[in-house]
Specification:
With 420 residues, this protein is of the alpha/beta class. The protein is built from 15 helices and 15 strands. The chain has a 15-stranded parallel beta sheet that branches. The longest helix is centred in the N-terminal third of the chain and has 18 residues.
Length: 420
């Protein structure tokens, strides 16, 4: 019993177990494990993943936090042995400082594969040229920085994930960067201003766009399976769109046959509706299962046509979610209601659609006709959930009465009317 109680179980742990434990600890705590035993001493220095944040230093005196954090990272890198596959710096206390350049230079010589820099507000960090010599990078996340690759830069040949948020970069540079990453699978671009962008990424599977885009074209993205898009419109961008004659729907969704999930946020359907009439689509979205569209204006027939062309060419669609953004007074006039009696619509069937969620509904005629169209043409529909707009009070009862009178192609279809 005495012999068992005196045994050093911590030191007897296999090296692989010790390394697994260290990998789960914050870097500051991992370093402290050196005091446990000689077997643990500086074992943390072999960690291939280094994650630094504001918890690495005491924040009793904010004036000294920047100095202490820089010293801490310097010491960790000085004592570290071996390769560093992942380096993440997420702090609100560091902005642009020469120490970050030195760290990236150090990482470029240690086969860095994953790099994340999320720095504080203030003077933006300008990425040094040595970043572009990290030829084994497979994952990059940059927040609030400037990118200006050297003239001889030809791309990151191993990169699979690129996440740029609040990054200053020339349009031609971002296009060249994307096309220079032949293995790129995930692309996130957020908070860009007045950017006209053509994306050529033959292996891209996930796309997230958010910002003020003057134009977007997906030119070579045949494997794209999921996307989320939010567009912010300024007066200049709106005027630019109005002068455009090319079809945004085709430019953006005309070459994504493998799409499985689509999330279109603010102004997305408005963007897709701009340009010449689509006519008959040459693409079928056989893999598309989930569609979410937000702030759709049912007073604009072009936006309605965008939705119809999308879902009518998605034979395996299972879930549809739409939020409205109609000007009630304008939409109440509701011209073209006879549109819903066209033969092409009456013959349409959504054979796999099971769930529909309609939120921020104003009860205007084209909204109700769209709901009626879905109910009457979805034979396996299970749930039709409808949430009125918070500003619609008096018309809720009439909306509900109209809904329960609509014909349902599915005997199992349940209409859920949410009042909260």
């Amino acid at each position: 019993m005495d012999q068992a109680s005196s045994r050093d179980f911590i030191s007897d742990l296999p090296i692989s177990i010790i390394e697994s434990i260290l990998a789960l600890l914050p870097i500051r705590d991992a370093i402290r494990t050196s005091i446990l035993s000689s077997k643990w001493r500086y074992r943390w220095a072999n960690l291939p993943q280094l994650i630094f944040d504001d918890r690495c230093v005491d924040i009793k005196d904010k004036a000294l936090v920047e100095r202490d954090l820089i010293r801490f990272i310097d010491r960790v890198l000085l004592l570290h042995n071996g390769q560093i596959h992942k380096f993440k710096l997420s702090t609100s206390y560091l902005q642009s400082c020469p120490d970050i350049d030195q760290w990236i230079l150090y990482l470029s010589r240690h086969d860095i594969k994953e790099l994340t820099l999320e720095l504080g507000e203030g003077e933006w960090f300008r990425a040094p040229h040595c970043l572009f010599s990290c030829n084994k990078l497979s994952h990059i996340e940059l927040f609030r920085c400037e990118l200006d690759p050297p003239p001889n830069f030809r791309g990151f040949l191993c990169l699979k994930t690129l996440n740029l948020q609040q990054v200053l970069v020339a349009p031609e540079v971002i296009e060249s960067l994307i096309s220079g990453c032949p293995l790129l699978e995930s692309l996130t671009l957020s908070y860009f201003d007045s950017l006209a962008l053509t994306i050529r990424a033959p292996n891209l599977k996930y796309l997230c766009l958010e910002g003020e885009f003057k134009d977007i074209c997906l030119e070579n993205t045949p494997l794209l399976t999921a996307m989320s898009v939010a567009l912010y419109m300024t007066d200049d961008i709106t005027e630019h769109f109005e002068q455009s004659s090319s079809c945004n729907f085709i430019k953006f969704l005309g070459g994504v046959p493998c799409l499985e999930r689509l999330i279109g946020r603010i102004y997305f359907t408005k963007f897709l509706s701009i340009g010449n009439d689509l006519g008959r689509l040459s693409i079928t979205y056989n893999h598309l299962r989930n569609v979410e569209l937000y702030q759709v204006s049912f007073e604009d027939m072009k936006e309605i046509l965008v939705i119809l062309r999308l879902i009518m060419n998605s034979p395996n669609l299972k879930e549809l979610q739409i939020s409205g953004s109609s000007n009630t007074l304008a939409a109440l006039e509701a011209p073209d209601l006879e549109f819903w009696e066209r033969k092409g619509l009456l013959d349409c069937t959504f054979k796999n659609l099971k769930t529909v969620k309609m939120t921020d509904m104003s009860g205007v005629p084209h909204e109700l006709e769209f709901i009626k169209f879905l109910l009457g043409n979805s034979p396996v529909l299970e749930i039709m959930s409808i949430t009125p707009c918070v500003y619609v009070i008096e018309g809720r009862l009439n909306m509900l009465i109209g809904l329960v009178r609509f014909r349902r192609a599915s005997a199992q279809a349940e209409i859920v009317f949410n009042l909260e």
